[in-house]
Amino acid sequence: MSVSDKVPEVSDPFGSSQKFRAREAWHVLKVMAEFVESAEALQSVIPAVSLFGSARTPRDHPYYKLAEEIALALSDSGFSVISGGGPGIMEAANKGAFHGRSPSIGLNIVLPHEQKPNEYQDVSLKFSHFFSRKVMFVKHSMAYVVMPGGFGTLDEMFEALTLVQTGKLRRMPVILVGSAFWTGLLDWFQAHLVAEGMIKAEDMNLISIVDTPQAVLDQVFLHYETRGAEVAPPDNEQMLTL
């Protein structure tokens, strides 16, 4: 069953509510199929790093070039690169990885205003639901590289931080690229979240800020060398509770 299958027509002699319940049940099956298809397609993608950033970044912007360089460096170092499959930083990430040694993965999302997949994807998957897409990002990555971005980028970043902080996800580095862009946010974390007891002081160690492709590689390899690329059995059990 394809996740793109249309909802079948359902006879509804008792009114619209029964028809809606039937459609809702069919929707659950579509969500299940989306998880199964994406899990099968990505099961051999090890090791991998997820790279996020704004879809609105133009190709001539320094952020675009930096993301492309980071993705190429990761790919040539043996890491598949997983990104959102769309334009902007997502395209830069896929493009860099596409021209490197390791696979370029695009997890595309269907939006009201259709997101056009970029052309630099060795593996291209389409999702209708943000939540199933986000599970695939965290399940198959051993590091998050976060470029400057908007609400979507922040959503992915905070999702990863929350899952690691609460023990729902194995420990992984969350690497913010661009000190000028991110330092103010981390200063606010320290001044308010830590100072007012909203998070522990050691939770700040979940995040690092870097500015160069080499610094990204250093952070990823540090994690890779201490934990390995293979997901340990306890980590697999942990991810079943995502």
How are the SSEs ordered, and which strands pair?
Blueprint: H1 16-42, E1 48-52, H2 62-76, E2 80-83, H3 89-98, E3 104-109, E4 123-127, H4 130-139, E5 144-146, H5 151-165, E6 174-177, H6 179-194, E7 207-210, H7 213-227, H8 233-239
Parallel strand pairs: 1-2, 1-5, 2-3, 3-4, 5-6, 6-7
Give a quick precis of the structure.
The protein is an alpha/beta fold. It contains 8 helices and 7 strands.
The total number of structural domains is 2
Number of helical segments with 4 or more residues: 8
Give the biggest beta sheet: 7 strands, parallel
- The SSE string, one letter per element, is HEHEHEEHEHEHEHH
Number of strands: 7
Provide the CATH top-level class of the largest domain.
Alpha Beta
Strand content: 5-15%
Mean pLDDT comes to 85
N-C termini distance = 24 Å
- The name of the CATH topology of the largest domain is Rossmann fold
The side-by-side strand order for the widest beta sheet comes to 4-3-2-1-5-6-7
What CATH architecture label of the largest domain applies?
3-Layer(aba) Sandwich
| Protein structure class | alpha/beta
Q: Percent helix among the residues?
A: 40-55%
Poorly predicted tracts of residues: none
Question: What does this protein structure show overall?
Answer:
This protein is of the alpha/beta class. The chain has two domains: about 1-45, no CATH class; about 45-240, Rossmann fold (3-Layer(aba) Sandwich). Helices cover about 50% and strands about 15% of the residues. The chain has helices at about 15-40, 60-75, 90-100, 130-140, 150-165, 180-195, 215-225, 235-240, and strands at about 50, 80-85, 105-110, 125, 145, 175, 205-210. Strands 4-3-2-1-5-6-7 form a seven-stranded parallel beta sheet, with helices on both faces. The two termini are about 25 Å apart. The model has no long low-confidence stretch (mean pLDDT about 85).
